[in-house]
Amino acid sequence: MAVQPLPPSRTASVGPPSAGGMNAPPAGTPGGQGPNSQQNLNQIIDHPVHRETLATRGDCLDSRQYPQTSTLLCFSHTSRFDHIMAHLIANVNPQVLEYLSKKGYSRTEAMLRKESRHATFDANQEPLDFADRTKGRQWHESYILVKGWIDDILDIYKPELSRLLWPLFVQCFLQTVTDCFTIEAKRFFEECQKPFGEEHSDDLRALSSINEPEHVQENDIAQLYRTNKYRLTLSKMGFATLIEFLEVKEAEGGKGINYLLNNHIDIHTVDRAAIGGARGLQRLMEEKHGEEQAPAEDEGIPGHHPGSANLSADATGALNRLALGPMPMEADLMEDVKAELGHEDITNPPPPGRSTLTDTFEQRIKSEPVEDTAPSREAIPYPPSTARDVAMEVQKVKENRDRFRIEGKTGGVGPGVSVTMFTFHNTFDSVNCIEFSDDNTLAAVGTAESFIRVWSLDNRALTSPHDPPGFQQSSSRRLIGHSGPVYALSFSPSAAVSEAATNGHTDRTTTSESQPRYMLSCSADTTIRLWSLDTWTNLVVYRSHNSPVWDVRFCPHGHYFVSASADRTARLWSTPQIAPLRLLVGHDSDVETIAWHPNGAYVVTGAGVGDRTVRMWSVASGGQVRIFTGHTGNITALACAPDGHIIASADDKGVIVLWDIRTGRLVKRMRGHGAGGVWSLDWSVESTVLVSGGADNSVRVWDVQPNKETKENKVNGETGGVKVDGVTVHGTGAAAAAAAAAAKTAKGKSREQATPDMISDFKTKKSPVYKVKFTQMNLVVAGGTYLP
Amino acid sequence: MSVWNPENVVDVAESIGIASLNRDVVEHLARDVEYRMSQVLNEALKFMRHGKRTTLNTQDISQALRLLDVEPLYGYESTRPLRFGEASIGPGQPLFYVEDEEVDFEKLINAPLPKVPREMSFTAHWLAVEGVQPSIPQNPLADPRSAELAAKGSGANSTLAAVSGNDNVSVKPLVKHVLSKELQLYFERICSAILDENNDEYRSAAFASLRTDTGLHQLVPYFVQYVADKVTHSLKNIFYLTQCMQLIAALLDNQSLYIASYIPGVVPSVLTCLIGKHLGNAAHDGAATHFALRDYSASLLSKIARQYGPSSSTLKPRIARSCLKHFLDSHKPFGTHYGAILGLTTIAGVQGVRALILPNLKAYDVHLQEGMKDDGKKEQAEFVVRAIVDALETLKEDSVGAMANGHPEGEALRERLVEVLGEVVGGRVAERGDVGLVGAVLEKDMVV
């Protein structure tokens, strides 16, 4: 039927939008209006509702009260009404008109005559509208139409309009499937998926298998796109040209696209020129040119202002203030620590050139930026401090003073970071995670065979008071209890007590107690377990999650911990209680990884396929305080800077993104890791250097200094009125443009091409790096398994 | 149209007693099966990712099934790859199935326990020290690709460039691999130092450095090439040749170098210095100086043979063959013969002397006698005779009975010796009157 020649009246409706279909002069009597079925006609017309709608609509159009009606209709598209109309018009015939005139509905009759011009009939009296003509290819053709137009459009609109293609593609595909055109849907998918392979590979994989309407109902990803509106920001001009085009092509598929735009896509328009010439349009052009595709910060399903966790449609862009300062120390504890430090200074005077411990401590307390409010201790209660806490604090101050200083990148030369690599052998790829304790005396490994193994790094025997007499002591222990692969481990906080510091101080009874005493583990058996490192036994099993638990992390101050699970929640616990204290619900897919803010008042979570957001939660309230969007892969690692202002997140496409917590904006993207996942991230003590380790057998060191332009944006953001336009403040700035240019020269290597902020790249010998960690003294400890 | 073959659905339906299924239903089900399978795979990928692996395994599938509330498939958790059997259910209709191994219970019980897998362990090393990756065995070799991957342009940082060897390197056009400026300088200094005739101290310092310094590996091919060049072009200069031999000796002494692969390149130069026709300038250096060089080369050669003979099966035979060839060629000057005899003695040892030199002495005697008569060659011939006698001396080592039992005395002995060794050498041996030597020499005779 698609090959039917177009009747003249159809072509008449295709014209400039000003002469929109309904206002066009009549093109003569529609030809070929043969006799048709009229059995239900009287019923239809007599139906009060229909009569009503017909009449009102006719009146309204007749009186020409709304010159923009055509546009309005396109927009509102409450398809119910349209369907009825289409049906009516399709079946209209002279008898109806006769009936109407006989009953005196003159205006309705006139209107019906007018409207019936659009309904055309072929020889079999079948309606010939676009959907029917193209059958299952309706959405395919529509999509091709828009894509062709966007490909040819002025360069100035291209970058932003091409972002529209992905949601349209998904919706067109899902529409075709819902209409039961399985074969056509498959073909459409095969033909048009190519440009999205890079950015949306995971979603494509999830969608590719959908071939029945039931699957659309069931599939998480499909539901995500069907039930949410994909948010997108377009400039006013770009949007206007798009609508104009769709109106012109209304009968060739534009109508369908328009329907999708209204129902599944949430387009925000901004005036780019008003934002500021250079930063609006030109920047957009520069960045998008040659740059690999990456979504803007406010694009996508959550649909929110960049950074903001307020998801309601009428939310303002303003962000709430967060208490990012360090947790204030308990008054008693501070007294004790000061006294202890004073004692230490006298018995162990600092070497020349070093400040005393007391000075270092005072400095650390005072040097904190004033603009950050500190969280209150009342909101997050902790058990009273013990002698162990004093010892740990003292040790932290000591280490802080004696650390290797990394002052950030100066003059293009990065700091020289030292990395100790612990390589695990004979693992047969069964190791899921590696963890080092804070005092660097223990290493633990979680395996796919459900057990945990702990080693002493200094080859000390791991003893337990419960050891039977004659027990052969060794420097490693197995912890058996889980019934599924162990996915994450976390040691309770501890501080190293170096030998040098304690020599001659045998009266220090606290030293041995600063070792980690507990370890948490989580597993596919949905449980979290707490292990005692004194007796090497399981103390508590925490059951609450109902899917595998992917990650678990101790609070930097101990006592609390947080877990992330495949049941799309993260849960906050305290060690003495077996039920979670807070449920952190909001992610649209598995919560893959988790990190604590250094002050212990916030946690950060990262999610996988379908969601791919990084979200920040308040421990006190359990609510979301920030959402960061912009990743294109599953988030595999998170780390919050010790100064509490920046979050680093990495995905399995090898991209590391830095986010500013206060302004909720993207600071920059750092590329260089190969695909396969960045398994671990960590910050130096000064928050100046980030280190990452991943599946591409490398440990990399990154400079985290933001680029100049982003700094300006930060200032903008701080005033509270964060611009809605996410694209213009796309953080990579000029450096990224330069990198993109370089990427262009090295054809096709853009993935592996490192951005200039990579300081060093240390390759290992066939050993994927599972864990990287900065010690308090700024030495990097890395753990990996040798996989020949 | 679906990847999953609808006929499988028919088969399953028949197996549970549904004889006829509507075609639409079958296709619908096939598509649904396909969707379910991809659903399982998508879930399984999550487990793979959290296992920090890049390959999917059967465990992941089991976990995914469990997560989807489906009974996992048991029996596929083996670590060995599955074997697929093929059966035919009709022409062109192969049926694949997992082949189950038949295990004899008796055998299984009585079989020795499998080896315990090696215990998991860890090692520690420095991946980087102050931003530089030390070149220790635990770290991979510098990747030449890293140079390309390092960011270029204004923002690129110099540490990376230095790591990948990009800075301050002037590349010699003909040289493929990049030699750092320091190494180039070192090479030049060493070469000029060892050829400096007037400065002993300088020379010995250079050799000492070659003998002990680590990290010269990159320069080894250059030194080998250098020696080869010098030897070919400075045959007239005994001093240069000697220095070259010493250079090689120094490199061989260096414990940190791996010379084995360069031996084929070194041996020709040494052989040239051993059995070269005309070494040095007789008028300038004196007629006999080259014998010292030959002595030195011979000892060098023996050292090479000792060190690298075991690792290269053809090394020793090849050297011995070329020595023998030169020894048997009477047109060659005495110097060459001298070198060849030395070479044979050192390379082939006692067996060689007995098998290769001794039988040929009688024939060689003619040549020697000629030489002794000629005043100009007498001195050279004298050296050869001494070398032969020295070679024969080695025979003593493995002669059976050192006693001259049954050997005639006096003139008769001399005749016997002359008969075996020829006029000149026989006479010389007889003169020495060393009973052991005589015995060793004649022992062979007795065996024959």
Automatic annotation (TrEMBL), chain A:
WD repeats lie at residues 424-465, 502-541, 542-574, 584-627, 628-669, 678-712. Residues 136-265 form the TFIID subunit TAF5 NTD2 domain. SMART domains: LisH, WD40. It comes from the Eukaryota. The keyword Transcription applies. GO terms for molecular function: RNA polymerase II general transcription initiation factor activity. GO terms for cellular component: transcription factor TFIID complex. InterPro entries: LisH (IPR006594), TFIID_NTD2 (IPR007582), TFIID_NTD2_sf (IPR037264), WD40/YVTN_repeat-like_dom_sf (IPR015943), WD40_PAC1 (IPR020472), WD40_repeat_CS (IPR019775), WD40_repeat_dom_sf (IPR036322), WD40_rpt (IPR001680). It is found in: Nucleus. One of its GO terms (biological process) is transcription initiation at RNA polymerase II promoter. Gene3D superfamilies: TFIID subunit TAF5, NTD2 domain, YVTN repeat-like/Quinoprotein amine dehydrogenase. The keyword Nucleus applies. Its main location: nucleus. Pfam families: TFIID_NTD2, WD40. Keywords: Nucleus, Repeat, Transcription, Transcription regulation, WD repeat. CDD domains: TAF5_NTD2 (cd08044), WD40 (cd00200). Residues 1-40, 288-308 are annotated as: Disordered. Belongs to the WD repeat TAF5 family. PANTHER family: CANNONBALL-RELATED, TRANSCRIPTION INITIATION FACTOR TFIID. This is Transcription initiation factor TFIID subunit 5. It comes from Recurvomyces mirabilis. The lineage of its organism: Eukaryota, Fungi, Dikarya, Ascomycota, Pezizomycotina.
UniProtKB/TrEMBL annotation, chain B:
The keyword Nucleotide-binding does not apply. It is found in: Nucleus. Residues 3-66 form the TATA box binding protein associated factor (TAF) histone-like fold domain. Pfam families: TAF, TAF6_C. One of its GO terms (biological process) is RNA polymerase II preinitiation complex assembly. Its main location: nucleus. GO terms for cellular component: SAGA complex; SLIK (SAGA-like) complex; transcription factor TFIID complex. CDD domains: HFD_TAF6 (cd22931), TAF6C (cd08050). Keywords: Nucleus, Transcription, Transcription regulation. Transmembrane segments: none annotated. GO terms for molecular function: protein heterodimerization activity; RNA polymerase II general transcription initiation factor activity; transcription coactivator activity. InterPro entries: ARM-type_fold (IPR016024), Histone-fold (IPR009072), TAF6 (IPR037796), TAF6_C (IPR011442), TAF6_C_sf (IPR046344), TAF_TATA-bd_Histone-like_dom (IPR004823). Belongs to the TAF6 family. PANTHER family: TRANSCRIPTION INITIATION FACTOR TFIID SUBUNIT 6 (PTHR10221:SF9). This is TBP-associated factor 6. The lineage of its organism: Eukaryota, Fungi, Dikarya, Ascomycota, Pezizomycotina.
